[in-house]
Structures are given as structure tokens and as C-alpha cells.
Amino acid sequence: QKYPLYIRSIPTENELKFHYAVHTSLDVGKEFVDQRERYLGLLYPTEDYKVYGYVTNSRVKFVIVVDSSNTELQDNEICSMFRKLHNSYTDVMCNPFYNPDDPIHSK
Amino acid sequence: MSPTQWDLPPELCCRPMAFVALTGLDMVYNAIHRAIWDAFCANRRADRVPISFKVLPGDHEYPKCRTKRTSYEWYIPKGILKTGWMNKHLNLVPALVVVFYELDWDEAQWKEKQSECATKVEIVRTSLQGRNTKVAVVLIQKKTPLPPGEDLIASERAAALCNACDLSGKSLFVLPHTDHLVGYIIRLENAFYEHAQTYYYTELRRVKSHKEFLNKTTHQLLFVRHQFKIAFFSELKQDTQNALKYYRTAYNLVHELRAHETNMLEIKNMAGFINYKICRLCFQHNTPLDAIAQFRKHIDLCKKKIGSAELAFEHAAWMSKQFQSFGDLFDEAIKLGLTAIQTQNPGFYYQQAAYYAQERKQQANQLCYHDLSINYPNPDPLETAAGSLDFYGQRPWRQGHQSIDPPDPEKEKGGILALQRKERDVLHSELIIALLSNAVAQFKKYKCPRMKSHLMVQMGEEYYHAKDYTKALKLLDYVMCDYRTERWWTLLTSILTTALKCSYLMGQVKDYITYSLELIGRASTLREDQKSRIEKNVIKVLMNECPDPEPDCDSSAVKAAQSLWTDRVSLAGSNDFTIEVQDYIPFVQCKAKFLYPSFHVDIPVQLHVYLKTDCPHPIRFSKLCVSFNNQEYNQYCVVEEPCQSTHILEPSAQGNMCLVPRKTRKYTFKFVARTEDVGKKIEITAVDLMLGSENGRCVLINWRGAGGDAASSQEALQATRSFKRRPRLTENEVDWDTVSIQANTMVISRVPRISVQIHHEPPALTNEMYWMVVSIQSQEDTVAKDVKLTAGLKPGQDANLTQTTYVTLNGSEMCDDSHPALLPDISIGELQPGQKVEKSLYVRCGTTGTRIFLVHVSYAVDTTVEDKEIVCKCHKDETVNIETIVPFDVAVKFVSSKFEHLDRVYVDIPFLLMTDILSASPWPLNLVSSELQLAPSMAAVDQLDSQVEQVVLQTGESASECFCLTCPPVASGANGVASGLYVLSWKRKSSRENVPVVSTVITLPHVVVETIPLYVHADLPSFGRVRESLPVKYHIQNRTGLVQDVEMSVEPSDAFMFSGLKQVRLRILPGTKQEMLYNFYPLMAGYQNLPSLTINLLRFPGFTSQLLRRFLPTRIFVKPQGRQVDDASIAAA
Question: Does a cis peptide bond (omega within 30 degrees of 0) precede residue B887?
């Protein structure tokens, strides 16, 4: 099952569209997941935004959607963003008061 | 659909092929001509040369060739590419015109025919004045031509004809219409193809040669035009590699053009055409990545070239078309064998096309409805004199205009208005839906289920905008459950909201309620005020009133919907709905549980139903009922409170039927199970909750099974993982998460109040009648009726055990095969309270091993449960493991008369049979008697009376018997002869008098029998005395039919002196015996070895005295010499 643990978009307008983008990006993966590499790179092309994926060893997926016109963000930056996210996720999992699979809340 | 402005022209999309015109063929009246034409047209597969043929009359007028420009100096081009150009070269101006003419070489009127032919060629030539089109002549002949050079007339006349027609020899062909027509045709068309290639090559050179006259300032458009033409001619020449190169150059040139608002459309149009050609060729060359890269570049370059802001929808339409045509190309390439992947497939392009189509619609909505008062301009600025445009992508009201500013602002305004008005007629939704469904098909193929769902949502929403609510609902309904199972609540909520609007606008009461139930529930991410509004609407519907319209709906649609709802309200009947909610996430949750997984039949079954709502306001229900697999119980589990429809929001009088948000409410039910259901399961098949009232409108929320919905199992799982402390609750409150569903319970029989005891003395002994006593004592307060005992081997054990176990109540007779292993239903009658009954059972086990015996006592007793009289059947089972062992072991051995072990016996020589009975039983055994039943091959020497009769053996003790037997001569004793049977009759010492004796039969071993030639036995006293003569007589018996020469000697011994023959040789006749007498005189006391007798048989050298020694005593006890007893002393004593 693939359901959102944590999802947030900035800006919040058109939020639904991005939720759909994240949801549809989950289709991609079978061929990626077998790789050892955790950073999956660009998942699929769209005109307006780029969808990047990252998967942990426990098969938790992170998806980042950025504006296509934002050319400053190279693979390196995206990759380090994912690492930060992964670290935060690990912190959440280490919290003894967190139940695995519960939605995550961020302050 | 008719082609729209945005569709690519068909001449652009087709594969260009050389155009060859055939003339002089009479297709209507001449069968031969028809056959020739068919041979050209039929079976044009990939292996034939790419030519498009057309039959034209001989005097056909080809398009006039304009006079060629010699200089471009003052020429200002009016556009990039003329709309007719591609079609002209594909279908109107041939590369080659072929004149067919019937003429044989031996034609009588050769001269006349020749000049007629020349005239025909001339006519064609004239019509093609100024063009480079080739002309060829094909002579249709009746005769097969001779090989070249042999027919002199032919070559002569051919030369003459060429001369007359001004043809080169290469352009004259002969077509004999014989059997091999197709073969000739194929050779002909290959020759035509070569001519056509030359033609297109010349054309290409010609266009290329213009380049030197052009300058960059005024002729920019021509650079593009010429480059496009060169590429197109290359394609006609089938030189696709170069064509691609030229198209790429052309594409770059297009983007070098000075773009401004007035020519933007033309530039984009042309760029789109060239891009299409490039992509098409790249796919054709199997370089799809190049195609994709080109397309991306194209899109990036053109995305921002919107052109006139007032016609922004045009740009979106054009963009949409770009994506769509690329998707089509991609899809076509896949059909021809290209493989696509999940992340790169035509679906993405269709999706993007749909996106731009949506954008087009939005922009059209913004731009085209601003002023409805202005009428469509007259005269129509979109009308042109020719009915079509001269150049691709130009405006009809200012064709050929190439300067930056429009020539006439007024006209420009009118044109834009006309276009905007036209755009209003476009069925945008239809376009969007078609593109989306294309994309859906692709994503389905490439296994992207979520993308597919997303697109289907979009389709549904588009249908909603197009006011086709039925289709919209169908699509949304279809994908909803995917989002529900994947628990994307935000997305689900958005879909539900649209679905709710659809159902409202259609006046679909049931759907309206179903979606509302979910939207006010816990899965919905709507704000509390939105939920509150929806809940109020639901309540209105339940009270048979019209709900308030959903927000953001089209006002005219709302009006129509309101009248629909009014009709619904006034309409009587069809006001009951059942909504099955286990696949939804409704605002009310239900969990039903039996208190225990099983109930004794004399205890009432207890059942709790828990309900909890998540909606913003408290809600009342009118009925709660539970259904079971046995419907008879349904009547006991109903809560009902008929209420007035107006009271739906008011708290109920009992406060019982009102569900307060987020409070768990418990309903308790109790009923007595039927005695017939003992051993069966009672299962909750459904829980129904009725909202509204039966006289108004009522909705039955139905949970299949014992509650739970699409989300509850996951929630339950999370709850079990949760560390959170349960909230402190008051006595009557229950924490929802702690309740777990228990959908079924077992009705089990009443606990028996009876004691069953088994007395017996294990282990059982093989084949004995093993005695067991079952004692049953009632502890009931009333009479136990119909007491029945079932006893015996517990079913389900090894089949061997069943076959070797017999049970009986009668201990006085041995039981046999006719007795069962299990005695069922032995009637015992009634048992008064406290009464005790004992029953004896006898079990015979034929084999050893452990058996499980079952004692099952059943009875019926009357009891009262909840003031209900019921007859309860009770039963009690006792099992006991009994091991069966062998009572004793019997060992049998053969010994000689000297008790020496014998491995064989000798004919007519007596030997002893000894039996050893060793008790293995832990209980004393009484050996009643024993009997030896000899086989015919054995004979008894004396009586065979039992020597162990009435002997009692304790554990480990043994008893022996000894029988003296001989063996009469037998034919084949070497293989062993049967000795007979040994029968032991026994019983347990403790067993009752009347219990039958068990006979155990032991088969005695076979024994090897041998004959010996000579038998010796000695007669001697049982003891000797020192210095007293001891007479010994040896009997030597000849057992053969021969006279035996015997050599006999006696070895001296220290302990004896003896008299008699020390060494003798004698002869014994057959069957007789010789006696030898010796007097031994013992010298020492004690056990002394006798002087040994040695016998040699001269006739039987193998016979040794060793064998004989077995029959002869070797030692004797010699008593010391007695003291001379004084007679006097005796007398004195």
C-alpha cells in the first residue's frame, strides 16, 4: 500500500494538482527499486514541474516536485534535499512515541 | 470530426512518393488496359518501389508553369509556404508521364501509327511546357518480343519511333501482354522510378540554385521556403537521410525569422510542420531519442511564442495539437515495433495535449465572452476570395501582409472578434476528453494505474463541466475506490466533492446521500463548516425536503436541479434506500461483537453493537437491527423508535437513539440460542442502521458482516500499535479503539454435571478379555433422561487397531471378528439425582500397542434459561490410553537325553523338547493347562501330560516343561520337519470365574532330522563305588542295510581298571546289535571320566566316534568306599 505519511506543498495554491503529481509518480518504480541506488532521479517528465524520487531501504519513498523553470536545482541539490529528508524521517522513526505508518506531523 | 484549422494537412502527414502519370489507358472499354492498371495498383507492398500512380487522359492539362524568375532582386515574398505546394508535387505535377500506345513491330500501317504516337507525345509535351517532367512511351504489344538484336525490324522501327517522338532510347518501353504481365510491370515501374528520381534530383538542384540570388534582409522567408522544398524533394526522391538534414536546417531557419505579432502564427505553423517532418523521419530511422529531443526543443522554443494576447487560446490549441501529433507519431512507431517504457510513452504527450486543450478552454472562456452585445462582423473577415488561404498560417483578412503593423487596425479588430466568436463554437470538452481517453489507453498499456486513475478523474471532471453528469459520475465512481484503498484522503475528498455536485445536479437521491455520508465522515478532509453544510443537507433530504445547492455550480444547472429535487420530493414512494457501506468510509462506524467466542446453550447469547459518528452534528436514527445467518434470531436484536420526521435533530426522549459525534455508543442484545443450533455457528451477516423514517424518506445504512468499513481494519491495526494512553472514560463509555469485532460465536452444549470414571487394570494382555468398569454418577438436580453410553476404541485411529479391537458387554464369551471396535449408544435409561450406575465392558486386543478408548455419556436434562424451558443435551467424554502387551514369552529348545543342545535330531533316537514360559505380565498369570499337539513326523516316547497345569506365574517368573520324543524315519529330514503346536491356556489370576480362558497357540520350530549308521548306548548304573566292580554294557546297533565292520577299542583311564575286550574288530549284521560287556573297577572317588570307547566304521570313513560320544556317558560319580560298619556297633545303636 502506498499512502502518504507526510505531504506538504509550498505554495499551497493548486495543492491538489501536486498531490496528484505525487500520487501518480508512485507508478514509477518497479525498474528503479531493484537498483542499489536510493536516489531515483527524475521520475517522469512534465511540462511544468519535475518529479524526483528517492527510496529508503525499508521501501519508504520520498518524492519532491519542483517547478520546471527552476534551473538552479541540479541533481546534486535535489539529492542532498532527499538526504536531509531521509535524516528527518529517521529521526521521526527513532521517536519512541511515533507509531510506524501513522501520518507524520511537522511543526 | 471535420478537420479543424489546427489539424496538420494530410499532404504533410503522408509519406511522399514519386508521382507518375499514366496516359493512353482506356480503363472503361479495354480489358487489357484495365489489367495493366490493376497490375500497377494491386499488391503495392513494401518491396515495390514507392510510386504513386495516377491514370490521366492523354490530353490532360497539367498545372501551368509560371515563368521562372530570373532575378529575385525586387521580389518580396508574401509568405513562407503556399498551401497548394505540397499537394501540387504529390498529386498534380508528375515526375514522369507515360504514354501507353498499342503498337506491334510488324504493324502493317506502321507509318500512320508512328506519327499518331508522335502526336500523342507532343500533346503531353506541350501541356508540360516549362517543366522538367520526363515523358516515356510504352508500346503495348500482342507478341512476345524476340531477344534484343535478333529482331532487325524491331530495332530499326524502334530507332525510327524514338526519332519521331524525340525520345531517348531509354524512354521507350515495350509491354507484351502475355502471361508474365506482373513481371513486366515490375520491371517497367523500376525504370519509371529511376526517371522519377532523376526528375526530383533536377528539381532539387533547381531550387538549390536559387539560393545565390537571395539576400538575408528581404528574402528571409524564401530561405525557409527553399530549404523546405529541397527537403521535400529529397523525400520524394526517397533520400530520407538528406531530407532530415534539410528539414533540420529549415527548422533552424524558421526560428531565425523576425517574429512579431502579425506573423507569429505563420512561423509557429511552419515550425510545427517542419518539426513534424523531423520527428517523423527520426522515428522512421529508428532514432526515437532524436525525435523526442527535437520535440522537446521545439516545445521549448515555441512555448512562449503566444502571439496576440487576445487570441491566446489559439496558442494553446496549437500547443495541444503539437503534443497530440507527436503522441500519434510515437504511437505509430510503437505499432511498427518500437518499444516504449513506463516513463516515456505516448500517454504523456496525449496528457500534455489534454492539458493544453484545457488551457485553451479556459482562455477561450476568458477571452471570447467579454462582450456579447457585439455582433459577428460583416462582411466575414475570415472569408477569402479563393475559399482558402494562399499561405499556411496567415490571417484571411490580411494575406501576404508581412510588415510588423497591421495594415488596417479596424479590420484586425474584426478578424480577432470573428476568431473569438468561432472559438465559442468549439466543443472543448469533447476535445479534452478524447485526448484524455487516448492518454488513459496508453497509461493502461504501460502499467501506470495511478496515472490512469488521475486522468480518469480529469475526464470525469471534464464531463462534469460539459454537463454530462452521468458519465462524470460513472468515471469518478470507478476510480474512487482506488484512492480510498490507497488512503489518499485529500484526493478522495476532491473526487467526492465533484461526485456530490454531479449527483445533486442530477437529483440522484441515493448517490447524493452516499457521497454525503463519506464527505462528512472521518476520511474527508473538508473543513468542519463544509461538513456541517453537507450534513444539514443530508438531514433535509431525510426529511424529504430539497437540499441546498452545492457551491460553485453552474447557476442554470442549479435551477434545473432544483426543479428535479422538487419533483423528487413530491413523488411518493421509492423513498427507501439501502446503502451498503463496507466499501465506503461513512460518517458512522459500526462494530458488532459477541461477548464470547462460544456460548453454552443454557446461557443467553450476548451481543454488543457499538456505533460512533464523525459528523459535526448529533444525528438521530430510528432503527438498529442485526441480521444473523439464522434469521430466527433477527427479531431479538432490534432497537426501534418511530420518530416524527421533524424530530430528526432533536435528542430522542430516551437519549438512546441519538448519536453524539465522536462518542461511542453501545447497544446490548441478548437472546437464547435454539437447542438445535448446538454445535453450530451463529454469525452476524449484517448490521442495518436506519436514518430518517419509514413515512418520510429513509436510508438504511447496511454493513455486511459485523461492521467495519474500507478504513477500519487499518485503523484497528494502527490502534494496536499505538502507544497512546487510553483516555480515562466514565463507566458507561467505551474507547472505540479497544472494541474489536467478533462476528460469530459457537453454540456449545451445556456443561455436563455428571461424573464418569473408568476402572481397569492396565496394561491389557494380548487377546485377553480386558475388563473395564465405567461408573457414571449424576450430579444433576433433576432427572437425567435418555442416558446413553458409547464406549470403545476412539474413532480416527489407525485402521489396524480398529480391526484388531473388539468390544463387548458380555464377558463370558470370547469375542471375535463379529464384534465392533466401538459400541454406540448403549441405553442406560434415566439417572436420578445422585444415582450411580456401573457398566462392565470387555475389550479384546489382538495386537500389542497403545489404544485410545473413548467413553462418551450423553443425556438430556430440562432447564430454564431466561424463563424459557429448554431441553439440553449434555455429554461427557472420557478417554483412556491402554497399552496392550504380550503376557508371556515361550522359548522352545531340543536337547539330547543328556540335556545337551541339539541342532538336529537323529532318527529313532529319543530326544527332549523343552518349553520355557516366561511371564511378562505385571499381573499374576494363571496357566490353566498346556498341551502339546505333535506333528505326524514326531512321536512321543511317553505320555504328554501337561506339567504346568494350574501354575501361577508372577511377573518375571518362568515355567518349563519337558517332553521326550523320537522322530521316526523321514524321507527328507535335512530340510527340517514340523514338530507340532504348543497350546497354552491361561487367564489373569485376578479375573472373574466366568471370564473365558485364553488359548495361546505357539507353533514349535522345525527341526532337522538325520539318520546315523551306528547307534551306541551304554547300560551302566547311576553311580559306582571305589573298589567295587561296575558292570557296563555297550549296545552297538547297526542301523544300515549293510554288514558293518566295526573296530572298537577302549582307552585306559587312571581312575579305572577294567576287564573286557580292549580292542576288537567285529562284524554286525544289518539291523542287529552287538553287546559288549565290561567290568570297570573304580579306583578313585568323585566324578571320574570313564575309559572312553572309540569306534571306527571301516565302511564309513566319515563316521567318527565323536558323534557317538553324544550318546555315551563320559563320566560317572564314584562314591568313596564305605567304612566297614561294625555290626556290633549297629546293634549297640
Answer: no
